[in-house]
Amino acid sequence: MNNTQFPLARKRGLVIQDVPNEVLVYDLEADKAHCLNHTAAAVWRACDGTRTVSEIADYLGRQAGKNVPEELVWLAIDQLNENRLMESEAAGGLTGTSRREAIKKIGMAAMIALPIVASMAAPKKVWANTSCACVDASDCVGTSCPSTNNCNTGGLCAP
Amino acid sequence: MLDLQQSKDDSELGDDPFRLELAGSPFQFEFWEIFESYGARIRLAAESKNLLENLKNTAKSALLGRLNFLGQSVQSFDAEFAAARNRDGKYVLYFDPSADETAGEPESTDKGQEAVFPAFESEADFNRLLNTLIRVRVGEFTRDWVFIHSGVVSINGKAILLPGDSYSGKSTLTAELVSKGAEYLSDEYAVLDKEGKVHPFDRDISLREKDGFTPYHLAPEAVGKRYGSGSPLEVGLVIFTKFTEGKLFRPRKLSLGMGIMKTMPFVLSVRRNAKFSLKVLNTTFKNAIILASVRGEASLAAEKITEIAERRLL
């Protein structure tokens, strides 16, 4: 783990909506919606480019009145990185086995919920998803239409 | 992919016809009209007066008559449909979401949803597709409304939303709920106003024959009743469900944030107006119970949903 960085949350190109205990983020560049649970949102907001990971852990711990391990901050940052919600990717976070180990370690000592960032992409072609209309077979991929690989002569994703 | 060469700079908008080259054949669109529906302005253009009349009638039917034709003095529009018949008499349909630069830029950087549909031999196929696409376009470009691709019924004066993709079983479940006493608002769109309330979009229920894709329409009165033109409704229940053979409907509760996030792919205006869409969804969903589950037979799921609604929506 690298603790000499000053993680900075991305703010550009995002629409942010607070809801109780969660934060919704819509990425206008990737056309993806993200839901950050309370812990992930707290870490994201604390990534202001002036604090190291351990300082973020201390800061969140003081706010929550509970011990916040560094691993928990890294766990959040890893997910934020994956979803392009950081200004620049913080290197040296948790990967592979160490992420699992971190969850185990945090899980045993955790007084606060594990950070979770859930995501969903908006469909590229709204009309294909909502009507099964298609110009060619590529419009049918990933839809719930009768065919996901054929655009018939009636302009429908169907056999 | 069809070749498309477009020629319609500002000087060609208005009284002058514009030309498009579709599939290597030039077409001149001399006849056009712009309509407004739910704040979206759509131009319909055709190479003949008869075809323009067909487009206008299809638009009226697609939007249940909730549109106004604006007359030739209005020239700005958000999106357009252009239709022509090629040398073989087949219908060609083109649509473009950003034809008019004065209509404002979308929030999203992805504007590429222009499409030329293949030549339709059947007028019925052409009209069916156009009918659907017109509603989608209005939903994408609407300004003060949010269209969610969703079935909608009401029980105890509260709306129940069933967001989902095409062919996920929304209409079947909607019809089952209506047959069990719920009132019908829509099998296709939950139309939300700025205050987050749902308005009916109550076209006839569109179901499919046993082959899975031949459509037929069912008047809601054949199985139950419509909500009618009463006041817009608050949302009490949102259910994400999809038909999966043999599965039981065992709903689990979702948080508000997860519920809104799962709805975003079904919000037609999300790419162009994410901020407004999120704000309205937050208002709409904040007092709703949000559930998710796969389901098997629609009648069993409808029974369970009716039971939940009658118990929880008071």
Provide structural commentary:
The complex is a heterodimer of chains A (159) and B (314). With 159 residues, chain A is α+β, with helices and mostly antiparallel strands. Chain A has five helices and four strands, in the order βββααααβα. Chain A has helices spanning 38-46, 53-64, 70-82, 96-109, 126-131, and strands at 14-19, 22-27, 32-37, 117-121. A four-stranded antiparallel sheet of chain A has the order 1-2-3-4. In chain A, a hairpin with a 4-residue loop joins strand 2 (22-27) and strand 3. In chain A, helix 1 (38-46) packs across helix 3 and helix 2 (53-64) packs across helix 3. Chain A starts with 13 loop residues before the first strand and ends in a 28-residue tail after the last helix. The model of chain A has no long low-confidence stretch (mean pLDDT 86). Chain B contains six helices and 20 strands. In chain B, a hairpin with a 2-residue loop joins strand 4 (31-37) and strand 5 (40-46). In chain B, helix 1 (49-62) packs across helix 2. Chain B starts with a strand and ends with a helix. At the A-B interface, strand 1, strand 2, strand 3, strand 4 and helix 5 of A face strand 9, helix 2, helix 4 and helix 5 of B.
* H/I helix tally of chain B: 6
The quaternary structure here is heterodimer
Inertia-based shape of chain B: globular
Fraction of residues in helix of chain B = 10-25%
Strand segment count of chain A = 4
Counting H and I runs of at least 4 residues, what is the number of helices of chain A? 5
Termini of chain A, distance in Å?
Answer: 52 Å
Task: Provide the low-confidence segments of chain A as ranges.
Answer: none
Strand content of chain B is 25-35%
**Order of strands in the sheet with the most strands of chain A?**
1-2-3-4
Provide the gyration radius of chain A in Å: 20 Å
Low-confidence stretches of chain B: 1-15, 98-106, 108-113
Structural class of chain B: alpha+beta
The count of strands of chain B amounts to: 20
What's the helix-strand series of chain B? EEEEEHEEEEHEEHEEEEEEEEHHEH
Structural class of chain A: alpha+beta
The amount of helix of chain A comes to 25-40%
> Main sheet of chain B, how many strands, which sense, barrel?
9 strands, mixed
Q: State the end-to-end distance of chain B.
A: 54 Å
Report Rg of chain B.
21 Å
Mean pLDDT value of chain B:
85
